[in-house]
Model the fold of this input.
Amino acid sequence: MNPHPAWLHGLFAVLPTPMAAGGHLDLESLDRVVDHYLAGGATGLVPASIAGEGHLLDEHERRLVIERVARRSAGRAPVIVGVLDDSTHLALALARVAADCGASGLLVKPPRSDAAAVLAHVDTIARALHLPIILMDHPKFGGLLPVDLLQRLADTVPEVCGIKVEEEPTPEKMIRVGAALGTRLGLFGGLGGVHCLAELAAGADGFFTGYPHPDQLVAVMACWRKGDRAGAAAASERMMPVATWEREHPESMILQRKVILRDAGVIAEAVVRQAATAAA
Done:
């Protein structure tokens, strides 16, 4: 499937999962979350990933969230679902749920294991479902993805078409990946967009992040693509108070995003299932 699909560019919004007091799902607020990110210019939607507390949802809740996002988006944007389990058996089950719900692709966290196990894990999911796979590259949450392993994955698993780079320094990692693989893998930043200008300069095709003001990050990309570097820098400056705060307080990032969305009238309550550290 290399090269990557035509839709794999721009902002893929890593959606927060709204919850009501007591911790149960608030699906009406989730509808508004979808609308908020699409209105802000997101080109794709990512439910049930780490910043969406996907690892804290049970199987029934995950299906409800994915189905609701797919229904609400109604074909307006591809839905890329987080597949987070280190167990290949469980990850494959989660990926099947995503496929059943109409996912366009999968955001796969590699297991914390050696290169052979990572290859086998990703290949098993790919062979079963034949959906585009974007790899999550964040050493804090998953296995390591050095450039030589990425090259082996791209060579042997054609469904692998992109990487969300969060191994810092991210621009340098993107440059190394681009030098080794050219345009075979789409390159995406995360980490709340805090390095967005440097990542665009390093060849980023877009971002996978739940940064709560999507229009601001979309403006950075739009200016950059037009060659308006001053405009991109100004748009980036508008992002930095929130993006920098998130970087400095990762343990509170999910809650802070929900507070911002609650105060904007997007979700009803700012409730997290448990204190969680995330970076997307």
